Amino acid sequence: MNAKVIDKKITGFSIKKPEPAKEPDIERMHEKFERPETLEGSTYKIKTPLSDHALYITINDVVLNPGTDHEVRRPFEIFINSKNLEHFQWVVALTRVISAVFRKGGDVTFLVEELKAVFDPQGGYFKSGGRFMPSLVAEIGDAIETHMKRIGLIQDEALSEAQREVLKEKQVEYEQKHHIEHGSDEFPPTATLCLKCHTKAVIIMDGCKTCLNCGASKCG
C-alpha cells in the first residue's frame, strides 16, 4: 500500500462509514403485475348434499423471483365451475373479488377465515368423516386454505404421529367402554361436534371433552 504525503494543514476530518449493502430487487405481487402467458395451478372438487352437481375450484399461481433465495409461489386467480347454474351469478362475483385480492398482494390468508365464517341461514351440512361445513361459501374457503397450505402460505398444524397414536388409543378405549362397533376409520357415532375443527369427533372421557380429530381438550 503506497503512503500518501499530506503537504497541507489538516483543518478537520471525518470517518467514512461503509455503504450499506444494497438490497436485491425483490419482486412482489401488486395490482399492476402482468399476468404471465402460462400459470401453474390446482383444481379441487367440492361435492355437497346441496346439489347433484359438483363444484370445481381452480386456483392458478404465479412464481415470483424464480431461481433465487426469494422464490415464492403466490395465488394469482381463481375460477369456479359447475353444471349447476343456480349460484352462477354470485359465484362469478366471488371469483372476481377473490382474484382481485390475490393480485393486490400482501397477506391474503385472511380470506380463508372470512369465507369459512359464512353461515347458511338454512343450515350447513356434514361431509364424509363427520366434518361440518356451515355453508357452501365456507367450503370454498376450506379449499382455498388447502391450496395455501400446499404452496406454503399457511403452515399446516397437523398432529404428529405420536399424537395421532394417543388419540387412537383414547378412541379404542372409549369404544370398548361403551361397546361401540363401527368402521375403524370413523369416529364414534356418539361423538359431538368440535368447535375448533368442525368435526363430529368429541368424546367425554374421565370428565374431559377430547376431540379425536384435532386433539382439542377441555376438562371440568
How would you describe this structure to a colleague?
With 220 residues, this protein is α+β, with helices and mostly antiparallel strands. Helix content is 25%, strand content 21%. It has four helices and nine strands. The chain has helices spanning 88-104, 110-116, 136-150, 161-177; strands spanning 40-46, 55-64, 72-81, 125-126, 132-133, 192-193, 200-205, 208-211, 217-219. The protein has a four-stranded antiparallel beta sheet with strand order 6-7-8-9, with helices on one face. A three-stranded antiparallel beta sheet has the order 1-2-3. Strand 7 and strand 8 form a beta hairpin. Helix 2 packs antiparallel against helix 3. The chain is flat and about 100 Å long. The model has no long low-confidence stretch (mean pLDDT 87).
Distance between the termini: 79 Å
SSE string, helix = H, strand = E?
EEEHHEEHHEEEE
> What is the number of E strands?
9
What is the topology, as strand order, of the major beta sheet? 6-7-8-9
Basic shape:
flat
Largest beta-sheet characterization: 4 strands, antiparallel
Mean pLDDT across the residues is: 87
Rg over CA atoms = 27 Å
Unreliable spans are: none
Helix content: 25-40%
Oligomer: single chain
Individual helix count: 4
Q: Which structural class best describes the helix and strand composition?
A: alpha+beta
Beta-strand content bin: 15-25%
